[in-house]
Amino acid sequence: MSVTASDVTAARAAVEKVARRTPILSTRTFSERAGGTVVLKAENLQRTGSFKVRGVAAKLAALGDGCNNGVVAASAGNHGQALAAAAAQMGIPCEVFVPSDAILGGYYAQSINKDAPHPAAARLWQEYLFSDEGQNLWLKGGARPVRMPAMIAGGTIDKTAAAALPTVSGTPVFMSDEQATKAKAYLADHWAKAIA
């Protein structure tokens, strides 16, 4: 599938109705270490906590009348939040199914480009994500920072953002690699039939 300029224009119009304009943050530390300008797009500041609201809004707009009867997702994460927010904004009925008997946890997944122009780009990015500043950005987006206990003890946590997190009770369940692989295979085999 090729993307045309008109596709981008249509997507932009839909996205602007739903997504916030998020800041591009400069980072002197990374720029100095990388030997060039490094900037970060703070998509974790979207109301839904991630960039996914952009893709969802564009897809719903592209479907047009195809989603008049509503849309459905099974998600305990950013996609479900993004779909619910975009659908509500666009007046589209939406149901998001979340497991009621388990708290499903997940680890941060980051894209690292092996062709980055600076050999230390991946390391620098990871250092930033796990710095107090990076962890507080995750927190502002609604994710619980992996370093949260240490940041609370050290007084570096964003107290306002931490107070805004929803209460979680119970013990989180993390899928094993084997379980995640099986779930992915199941979805690949059954998704098209389930939504037809």
Task: Describe what this molecule looks like in 3D.
By secondary structure, this protein is mainly alpha-helical. The chain has one domain. 48% of the residues lie in helices and 10% in strands. The chain is built from nine helices and six strands; from the N terminus they run αβαβαβαββααααβα. It has helices at 5-18, 28-34, 52-63, 78-90, 121-129, 132-140, 148-154, 159-163, 177-195; strands spanning 24-26, 39-41, 71-74, 94-97, 103-105, 172-174. A two-stranded antiparallel sheet has the order 1-2. The chain has a two-stranded parallel sheet with strand order 3-4. A two-stranded parallel ribbon has the order 5-6. α4 (78-90) links the parallel β3 (71-74) and β4. α1 (5-18) crosses α3 (52-63) and α3 (52-63) crosses α4 (78-90). The radius of gyration is 19 Å and the shape is globular. It starts with a helix and ends with a helix. The mean pLDDT is 81.
